[in-house]
Specification:
It contains eight helices and five strands. It is α+β, with helices and mostly antiparallel strands and 203 residues long. The longest helix is centred in the first third of the chain and has 15 residues.
């Protein structure tokens, strides 16, 4: 995708949601790794064939603990694993499930690729944004929801499909139905920001 195409998509996102990007959540640390995460990364580094092989699970460990991956945390992981900072940044930015800014307690990823888009995915994204008063990629002022556009989440059979904290849901009848469902779930068990990380388990 060219820079002009990307800019055009961002402009369409803002228009579809009826407003410019709102304030982002400010939860999460901007410092480096906690002692617990540092210990986890150290264990991964000696438990896998190479230190570089530990990069993805190490980044998951950071996100699981903090809800996102700050620049400071990324740099510290790179140093611990003897990986060039640019390489670590390339991995963290390649996978959309890694969050490089604070997210809400609930992260909603809406697919609008061909099948989901034709089944109402684009309208679902616009309706969610309108209800929450944000644009795609933004977080509500109360830090409760982040809504993101995704090209594909491999759930064509559930179109229009979404992931909420990495859990698949679909077909989604409407934005109102989804938000009502999440409100009920939150009353039973509040979610933790950043979604559920999939961390490689090692001895």
């Amino acid at each position: 995708m060219t820079s002009d195409e990307r800019l055009g998509r961002e402009q369409r996102d803002s228009t579809a949601c009826g407003r410019a990007a709102g304030p982002r959540a400010t939860s999460g640390s901007t410092s480096g790794l906690s002692e617990a995460v540092r210990a986890r990364v150290g264990l991964l580094a000696v438990s896998l064939p190479t230190k570089r092989a530990a990069l993805v699970p190490a980044l998951w460990a950071v996100q699981e603990a903090e809800g996102w991956i700050s620049g400071e945390a990324l740099a510290e992981v790179a140093a611990m694993l003897d990986v060039a900072p640019a390489d670590a940044e390339g991995v963290a930015s390649f996978y959309f499930l890694f969050s490089r800014k604070p997210t809400g307690r609930r992260v909603i990823d809406v697919c609008d690729n061909l099948v989901c888009g034709a089944s109402g995915g684009a309208q679902l994204l616009a309706d969610l944004c309108a209800r929450l008063g944000i644009a795609p990629g933004e977080t509500t002022a109360d830090g409760r929801f982040t809504v993101r556009r995704q090209e594909c989440i491999a759930a064509c059979h559930q179109a229009p499909a979404v992931q909420v904290d990495l859990e698949y849901r679909g077909p989604v009848a409407s934005a109102d139905a989804l938000l009502a469902e999440l409100a009920g779930a939150d009353e039973e068990a509040p979610a933790v920001g950043g979604g559920r990380a999939i961390v490689l388990d090692v001895p």
